From TrEMBL:
Residues 27-156 form the FAS1 domain. It comes from the Bacteria. Residues 1-23 form the signal peptide. SUPFAM superfamilies: FAS1 domain. InterPro entries: Adhesion/Biosynth-related, FAS1_dom_sf, FAS1_domain. The keyword Signal applies. Transmembrane segments: none annotated. PROSITE patterns: FAS1, PROKAR_LIPOPROTEIN. Keywords: Signal. This is Beta-Ig-H3/fasciclin. Coiled coil: none annotated. One of its GO terms (cellular component) is extracellular space.
Amino acid sequence: MFRRIALQSVFALVAVSALGACAHRAPQSVADAVAQTPELHSFNALLAEAGLAETLKGSGPYTVFAPSDAAFKAVPAKTMAALKADKALLKSVLSYHIVTARMASADVKPGNAKTLQGASVALARAGNFITVEDALVEQADVAASNGVVHVVDRVLMPPKK
């Protein structure tokens, strides 16, 4: 009897410790998820510059199609310089990557989704492959309490108004 209680206590302690460790590592917001994803250093820094990191800490829900560091390296230097020089333009471009709804990869349906920027993006799916405009989702379903982040291989530019 004592042995069973001791064993149950050990299992309970292990379970509580494991849950505590998971809760500690789980991002609390989409902004935290972006900050903790190694491939998104450039996107994270630009979100802060544009003042959007605070927005993504809000209640949401948000789906962020976040360009990888490699995607930002592919953007011409002149374009990147223009984005960094014009905070309104930077905010517009980054907001175009944010949909104001939670869409895990399993929820993505072909069609359009309205972005935080105001314009819509075209979503498509072919089996397990998901695209947003001409960008391919390389890493899906980085979970957060207020949404989800999908890492994409291109920086999307909003349509000119």
